[in-house]
Amino acid sequence: MEIEAKIIFIIALFLAFIFIRLRAEYERKGHKTLTIFLKKITGLEIHHLHFGLFYAISALLWIFIAGFNIANLIILAIGISFIIDELFPAIIYLRTGEIIYYSKKSLIISIILHVITGAIFYFLF
């Protein structure tokens, strides 16, 4: 894979991380967001982990069907970022029932997971 594509993936990964953290803080302060709207309509707790799974699976299907391009690489990076940002807090919530997404520990672990993901992608692809 070309170096430019790798850099674009890493930039998209971190921009998605910054966006989702800012959006989560916005929601936390009581502002209405898409996830609140979906919960009101469906009654389901939909988080950015779910959106991430949708984006990542869609991008992978797009890659397999139409071939690789920058657009599906960016969508894949966004999906992966959304997934890894909420992965650790989701595991802790399932094990203990404690919501830690807004904690400093969760933020640090998410940053570490993003750095590891970016490095793996850069060096392996």
**Overall number of domains:** 1
- DSSP helix count? 5
Overall geometry comes to globular
Which regions are unreliable across 5 or more consecutive residues at pLDDT < 50?
none
- Name the structural class: mainly alpha
In round numbers, the mean pLDDT is 91
How many beta-strand runs? 0
* Fraction of residues in H or I helices: over 70%
Beta-strand percentage range: under 5%
Report the end-to-end length measured between terminal Cα atoms: 6 Å
Biggest β-sheet: count, sense, barrel?
A: none
Q: H/E series, N to C?
A: HHHHH
Q: Roughly how many Å is the radius of gyration? A: 15 Å
Task: Describe the structure concisely.
With 125 residues, the chain is mostly helical. The chain has helices spanning 3-28, 34-42, 48-66, 70-96, 104-124.
Description of the structure:
Helices cover 82% and strands 0% of the residues. With 125 residues, the protein is mainly α. It has one domain (3-124). It starts with a helix and ends with a helix.
Map the helices and strands:
Layout: H1 3-28, H2 34-42, H3 48-66, H4 70-96, H5 104-124
